[in-house]
Amino acid sequence: MLGVDVGGVLTSRAADDQDTSFFGSQPMLTPAVAGAFDALTALTAGPFAGRVHVVSKCGPKIAALTRAWLAHHEFFERTGIPPANLHFVRRRPEKAPVCARLGITHFVDDRLDVLVHMTTVPHRYLFLGDAREEAGTRPVPSWAIPAGSWADLAVLLAGGLEGSGRAETR
Fold first, then answer.
1. Which CATH number do you get for residue 80?
2. SS3 at position 100
3. Beta bridge partners of 167
4. pTM metric for this prediction
5. For residue 167, what pLDDT is reported?
6. 140: which residues sit within 8 A by CB, 6+ positions away?
7. Beta strand residue intervals within the chain, DSSP E
8. Number of folded domains that form the chain
9. Rounded average pLDDT over 22-28
10. Which of 39, 56, 77, 136 is deepest in the core (most CB within 10 A)?
11. Confidence class of residue 85 from pLDDT cuts 50, 70 and 90?
């Protein structure tokens, strides 16, 4: 079971321009992180078939904005992830119980302060993506697997699957 965050993992944080920032005046213009949709489409059709969830921390206003962004970019249609697999929490540590309840075995987030709470998730991926340069100065704990791009993540997540059709633990 795969779980992914939204901000910095699906939506780009690199767009500092007010016109293309998720929190700016035209949030629908915020780009997706390069390769995210393609990788999730492949992972949803293959090793994590029917077992991908999006878990995001935000309040009601940003949750509505996130739903609108996902619809605008046809996220669910393009990736095959069902809309029912979208979950929102109000505080970052609350992602952990959601993942435990869902049986998430692999989770992708761009924040260590989220991943540290996910003690029931055996495979925690720190997505460096847009923050790759600033993240290079901080050590990554041994319990987190760093990934610089969605291409890297797709390889890591699909590793060891010959003939099984399901994501295996490493």
1. 3.40.50.1000
2. helix
3. none
4. 0.86
5. 39
6. 112, 126, 146
7. 2-4, 52-57, 86-89, 106-109, 123-127, 144-147
8. 1
9. 72
10. 39
11. very high
